[in-house]
Design a protein that fits this description.
One of its GO terms (biological process) is pentose catabolic process. It comes from Desulforamulus hydrothermalis Lam5 = DSM 18033. Keywords: Lyase, Metal-binding. The chain is α+β, with helices and mostly antiparallel strands. The protein has a single domain, classed as Class II aldolase/adducin N-terminal domain (L-fuculose-1-phosphate Aldolase). It has seven helices and eight strands. An eight-stranded mixed beta sheet has the order 4-3-2-1-5-8-7-6, with helices on both faces. Helix 5 links the parallel strand 6 and strand 7. It is globular, with a radius of gyration of 17 Å. The two termini are about 30 Å apart.
């Protein structure tokens, strides 16, 4: 690899580490996780490498040197720490979904309540419809960190941007790790709204064709054009 390309690749890896550190603190502050649970990864596409949080470390104390870099087969490339125990899950999603550039796994309370009763979260608000592209389905239960869990999550996720892991928590994916984090925030908000609405009356779920249209609009026309 030419020196300039190698330098750019390393810069991209370091930028991914810093972004994950920032989002880890935000995830903890937002109450989307407690303690050291949950995990975050970012794909450095030009290098074919994944930067992922280490296992069982305090988000408030993470440094760039704590991050672990893996190739898409799970082989360690950089870092001295043990990677998150859910690394196989992250890698399986990246392998199945070429559009995904970041993954965030949270244990937010209301979304996890739906995972515990194994009930999908339907698209009842437009921002959730835009970001998720449908209901947040529940993957069949499997022990954490196992290939079976990874298979079940990939299957239940399909082409959407969020999935619940039965009795476990939420996984959000996005074109970037920032978008994956936003997905988790919006799904938790949608879960709260749906749960509250169920105590008032019968929630109206957005029609499937409208959800698909909203999702397409979000991906093609939402926000500002790149300069």
């Amino acid at each position: 690899m030419p020196p300039d390309e190698e330098f750019q690749m390393q810069q991209a890896i370091e930028a991914a580490k810093q972004k994950i550190i920032e989002l880890g603190k935000k995830m903890l502050q937002a109450g989307l996780v407690a303690g050291t649970w949950g995990n975050i990864s970012a794909l450095v596409r030009e290098a074919g490498l994944v930067v992922i949080t280490p296992s069982g470390m305090d988000y408030t104390c993470l440094q760039a040197t704590d991050m672990v870099v893996l190739d898409l087969q799970g082989r360690p490339v950089e870092g001295q720490r043990r990677p998150s125990s859910e690394a196989p899950l992250h890698l399986a999603i990246y392998q199945a979904r070429p559009d995904v550039g970041g993954i965030v796994h949270t244990h937010s309370e209301v979304a996890t309540a739906f995972a515990v009763v194994r009930q999908p979260i339907p698209p009842v608000v437009e921002d959730a419809a835009m970001l998720v592209g449908g209901a947040v389905e529940v993957a069949r239960y499997a022990l954490p960190g196992t290939p079976e869990l990874a298979r079940q999550v990939v299957e239940a996720l399909a082409q959407r941007s969020a999935v619940l892991m039965a009795n476990h928590g939420l996984v959000g994916v996005g074109r970037s790790v920032e978008e994956a984090f936003t997905v988790c925030q919006v799904v938790e908000k949608c879960a709260k709204i749906y749960a509250w609405a169920c105590t008032i009356g019968q929630p109206a779920v957005l029609p499937e064709q409208d959800v698909l249209m909203l999702s397409r609009l979000y991906r093609s026309a939402y926000g500002q054009p790149a300069k």
